[in-house]
Structure formats: C-alpha cells, structure tokens
Write a structure and sequence with these properties.
heterodimer; A: two-stranded antiparallel sheet; B: Rossmann fold; Rossmann fold; six-stranded parallel sheet; four-stranded parallel sheet; about 45% helix; elongated
Chain lengths: ~325, ~325
C-alpha cells in the first residue's frame, strides 16, 4: 500500500470513528486516575445512570437527523411517568402502566408533529410550547405533590437481569432498534434524505410530512419508556422530575456527531456521546473534584470532544473534495 | 384578500388592546366585597416561589385550604416559576391590582426585596415567608429557621455518629438561603465539634432525588465504609438511601434530612432513615393566615414569627404519618 493510501485510510478511520477514540481515551485516563472506575459494579452504575438520558437521546438523534428537535422530552417524560404510576396504583398492572406511559408519550409527540407539519410551526417553538403544557399537566394532575409507595413498579428501573441493570438493557434494546431503523429501513433512509435536503427529498417522492410524523411517534415511544424507567428508578411519581433532561439528550446526540444542520448522525455515535458525559461525571465524583470545578471541566471537555470530532470530519471532507478535484482535472486533461 | 384579512385582524387587535387600556383596573373601582356576615372581604395575593417545587406546592395548597376557613379573606395564588423576573413581575401586578395583602415566598430574597419594599410603600400589608426577607420596615414575616432545622439533627448526630466516622454530604443549590443556612448549621453544630469525622464525598444535588442517587452510587464504589448520610433535605436523603437499601454492607448507615416529607416519615418508620426535622407547610399556612388576618383587621401592626421544627425519629414518627394521612399525602 502506498504512503498516500495509508494516510488516506488512517484519515478515514480517524474521521469516522473519532468520537470512539475520544471515548476510549477518556476511559483509559479515568482508569488511570482511579482504580474503582473500572470495577464491574461502577460500570453497571454508569450504564444505569445514563440510560434514561440516552433513550431520550436516541429519539433526539432521529429528530435532529431529519432537521427537527424536541425540547419537550423531559416534561413529557414527567407527564407520562406520573400517569403511568397513577394507572399502576389504580389497576395493579405493570403492563397497563407501561402502555399508558407510551400512549402519553406518543399522543404528546403526535401533537408536536401536527403543529410542525400541518401548521408549519418551527420545531423549537412547537416543542417549547409542549414542554410548558406537559409540565403544567403533570403538576396539575398531581397537585404538585410526589406519588409514593409504588410497589413492584420499581422493577423497571431497579431490577437486574443476570446482574445487568434493567435500564441498561432497555437502553441496549433501544440502541439496536434505532440503529436498525436508521441503517436498514426506508423510513431511516428517508429521515437522512429529509434532513440532508428537504426539497430534494420531496421532489424524489418522499412523503415528508408523513416521515416527520413517524419520527415524532418513534420519539414519543422512547419518551414513554424513559418516563417509566425514570420514575421507577427514583421510586416515586415526580411531576417536577427530569427537568433539563432534554438538554442532556441533546448534548449526548451532538457530542456523538449528530449535526444540527440535519442529515448526519448515528445511534452508535449518540451512545458514545452519552458515555463520554457519563464517564466524566463519574470520574470527577470518584476523584473528589470540587463541585464548581466539575461544571467547568465538564463544559470544557464537551467542547474539546466536539471540536476534535468536527476537525476530524473536516479533514475527511477536504480529502474527498481534493480527490474529486484531482479526478476532475484528469478528466479535463483526457478531453 | 389576505392583505385585507391581516389588516382587519391587526385593527381588531389594536382596538381591543386600546379598549382594555382605557378601562380602569376592575379592582381599583370595585366597591369592597362583603362576606355573608357583612364583614369586609380582603383580597390577598399569595405569590409562590415555584409550584413545580414539591414543598412550595405543598405550602401553596395548605395556604389555600387555610384561607378557605376565613370568611373575610379571598385568596389568589400566583406561580413565580422559580424565576426572579417572573416573581418580581407578579408582585408588581399585585401592587397595581391593589390587593389588600401580598404574601411573598421569595425565589431569591435579595431579588424580591425592592419589590416587597414597593408593596409596603403602596400601603399594602406585606408578609414574606419561607424564607423571610428580613429588615424591611413595615413588612411582616412567617418562617421556619433553617439553621435550627439542621441543628436539631446535628445535635442528635453528635451522639449517634461513631468515632472516626466517614460521612457523605448532599447540598442544596448554592446561594439558596435555606441550603446555605442548613449547611452552615451542620458545620458549626457537628463538623466543628467532631474533628474525627471525615467527609468522603460532598456534592450539590440541587434538592433532587435522582441527582443524589447518582452521587451515592459512585460514593458506594469508592468507599467500603460510609457511616452517615447528611442531607440538607429529605428528597436527597431518600435518593441516597434508595441506592443502598438492599446492600447489607450499609444496613447500619445513619441518615439525616430536613422537611419531614411523607416519604421521609415512611423511611423513618421502616428504620431506613434516622431522623429529619419537620418544616410543616400546615403550620406555616396557619400562621400566615392568622398573621394576615390580624394585620388586615388592625389587631397588630407588624408580626415576625417562626414555626417550630420538631425532630422526627422512630419514636414519634407515627404522629407525623397520621398528619400526612389526613392531608392525603399517604394513602
């Protein structure tokens, strides 16, 4: 292999997998900083801690790739969670409780989708409105009070299967489904097409409104699942819970390489983004870093990770363009 | 056609705004209402810090229930949404609407101080609560003392926490009056008197149960022994206890909170939690309405009063569980 080809191959690998390099580097540094970091129980804890935010982040990834976003996911999670717990306390059925959460998530997201597709409301505004309405509904339903004594409902968030925390298993299942949808289905390819160029997608026969609505329905299902896991993990129905989780989810998706301009993003990248934030939070607490300093370090490392990722992608784009230019000049010469 | 429609809508909107502005505020011109007994009915605005905050919601509900017992008081509740600007705007609106009394539960005492002073200057009965804004001439206050709330726990911990203990500390949001005063109280009443105790983890969990859980999960990994959880509220203590509830290594752990929430009472009853001190929204509401009534009817000119902060332990928890059952918080 020539030096140029080797260099190109390395550059491609670097640009495609840069976020995983960052994650691996952070893992090694954390391991060196504190031996407890790599204990199986600590890694399981991190997986459980990031699971709710990461499940929301998969929904955000699908929406961002298609050129939208959801600011209401934290509030809808709270509404879905308290209604789910309430229905469990009324019926004693975990299945009904789970279905209620998903139905609430989907209904709220269909409303988001209608505002965006039918009334052409910008996603930022439509989901901001839903954020306020859903939080208000959760508080009104519970009169602002937490719901306690939730019995077996806790198995969703606190149960373990073969020693692995149940929320982490939910997260892995959602990862696989999201990965499959984005990579292997017409719906997934349509999402990338719409996010890349909506007009071109429309011209090529993709029903843009229908795909956007489907993206919100998928996001709604994930928000419902996250609602069940969150409330179950904290052992109570908390109408004011999960505040700011929409930003946790957005952070994981964007660190993982999902582009706000649409058309770019992967489920694996989002998972890596979520683990970067999870590792950082964990190692700083293990190392006893001052609480205020933690916020500065967290912000700085997130910025550095994204800068590294963007730089790596820019190199690949330049190489591609450069390659295309050389090819074009050869064609011109031959003519 | 569209242009005409837009023009029509704009003109209609402007006309309705101007019509609204030209009318005097209803409260300013209405004759004072009277109760069934012919007594004057006083209009009272209760401005809550944030109804999304579970204690603030509990207090707002308790104030509503208590106000219903007074024939001469008509209460309106407003939500400051944990935002200084929103809360200040609500105080200004209440002044403009000429309420007879404004009760302020500040989001940030110093941010609301000039607006509370404006209310006093407008001749409105002004009461600050949870936490009081002290030093406003002419204003009254009803509060619980956050230093004392933590101190009753700290005194108990002095006896209970073993020698050379390792403890973790969960703090509320920095800059919050109650969070800072409770932490200061633990420092002076416990840590300064027990130099043998080591803090192996201290974090800001912002009163939140889920944040406290995450920190405790990590501390448990880093420390084979934790003898006590010292939390500035019950919610965070409950979160930390959730993590270790099935872990035999921590079965004898001590844990202290503040607030006396329904969940904390149940944890104390089950033996999982050691103690908390009650910050009763019912007691605050009772004193608030009594204070408002006395000031509005001219019985007194200024009142500054505190509610008690009784310590809740396994010995007396049943009476507080009954209190929460009566309120519907425990079913």
């Amino acid at each position: 292999m020539s030096t140029d080809n080797k260099s190109k191959l390395w550059s491609d690998i670097r640009s495609k997998y840069s976020i995983y390099f960052v994650l691996t580097a952070l893992f090694i540094i954390s391991w060196m900083a504190n031996e407890n970091f790599v204990s199986a129980e600590n890694l399981k804890n991190i997986s459980a801690q990031i699971s709710v935010g990461t499940i929301l982040a998969f929904g955000q990834t699908v929406l961002i790739i298609s050129g939208m976003l959801d600011l209401s996911s934290g509030s809808v999670l709270a509404l879905a969670g308290v209604l789910s717990i309430s229905s469990y306390k009324m019926t004693g059925s975990l299945l009904i409780a789970f279905i209620v959460a998903i139905v609430v998530g989907v209904v709220c997201n269909i409303l988001n989708g209608i505002m965006i597709t039918k009334f052409k409301t910008p996603p930022f505004i439509a989901t901001l409105a839903m954020m306020t309405m859903a939080r208000g509904a959760a508080l009104m339903y519970t009169n602002g009070q937490n719901i306690y004594q939730i019995g077996n409902y806790i198995i969703f968030g606190q149960g373990r299967i073969m020693g692995i925390p149940a929320p982490a298993i939910f997260m892995i299942i959602v990862l696989l489904i999201t990965w499959y949808i984005l990579r292997n289905t017409v719906f997934g390819r349509s999402i990338y097409a719409i996010g890349g160029n909506e007009e071109a997608a429309n011209a090529s026969g993709i029903n843009v409104e229908r795909i956007k609505m489907k993206a919100f329905v998928y996001n709604g299902i994930l928000v419902g699942i996250a609602g069940v896991l969150f409330m179950s993990r904290v052992n109570g129905g908390m109408p004011n819970g999960a505040q700011g989780y929409e930003f946790k989810a957005l952070t994981a998706a964007v660190i993982g390489g999902t582009s706000f301009t649409g058309g770019i993003g992967t489920a694996g990248g989002t998972l890596a983004g979520a683990f970067i934030v999870g590792f950082l939070d964990n190692i700083m607490v293990l190392a006893g870093v001052n609480s205020y300093l933690q916020q500065i370090v967290r912000g700085a490392i997130i910025a550095l990770a994204v800068i590294y990722d963007i730089q790596a992608k820019t190199v690949r784009t330049k190489r591609k363009h450069g390659f295309a230019e050389v090819k074009q000049s050869n064609i011109e010469k031959s003519i | 056609m569209k242009k005409w429609l837009v023009a029509f809508l704009v003109v209609s909107l402007m006309a309705s705004i101007l019509a609204g502005c030209s009318q005097p505020a209803p409260a300013a011109t209405e004759a004072p209402e009277e109760s069934e007994t012919g007594e004057k009915v006083y209009r009272v605005a209760y401005i809550a810090r944030a109804q999304a905050d579970s204690f603030a919601a509990w207090l707002a509900n308790a104030v509503k229930e208590e106000a219903a017992k007074y024939d001469n008081i008509k209460l309106d509740v407003f939500d400051g949404q944990a935002n200084d600007d929103t809360e200040n705007g609500l105080i200004e609106n209440a002044i403009t609407n000429k309420y007879d009394c404004i009760m302020i539960q500040p989001n940030n005492g110093e941010a609301q101080r000039p607006y509370a002073e404006k209310a006093v200057a407008a001749g409105i009965v002004t009461i600050t609560t949870n936490a009081r804004i002290s030093g406003i001439e002419g204003a009254s206050s009803v509060d619980a003392d956050p230093y004392a709330q933590a101190a009753v726990n700290a005194v108990l911990a002095l006896e209970q926490v073993p020698k050379d203990a390792k403890v973790v500390v969960l703090n509320g949001p920095p800059g919050n009056f109650h969070a800072d005063a409770r932490r200061e109280s633990w420092q002076k009443e416990f840590f300064d008197k027990r130099p043998d105790v080591t803090i192996v983890g201290e974090e800001i969990a912002n009163w939140n149960k889920d944040e406290a859980m995450n920190y405790m999960e990590t501390w448990v990994q880093a420390n084979d022994r934790i003898d006590a959880i010292i939390s500035m509220n019950d919610n965070m203590a409950a979160g930390a206890l959730e993590v270790i509830k099935d872990n035999p290594k921590f079965k004898d752990i001590l844990s202290y909170g503040v607030d006396g929430t329904a969940e904390a009472c149940l944890l104390i009853e089950s033996g999982a939690m050691t103690a908390t001190s009650l910050q009763s929204a019912y007691d605050l509401a009772t004193k608030l309405l009594d204070t408002a009534n006395k000031l509005l009817t001219g019985v007194e000119k200024q009142i500054d009063t505190d509610i008690d902060c009784p310590l809740i332990t396994k010995d007396n928890v049943q009476q507080y569980i009954e209190m929460h059952k009566r309120a519907g918080a425990i079913k």
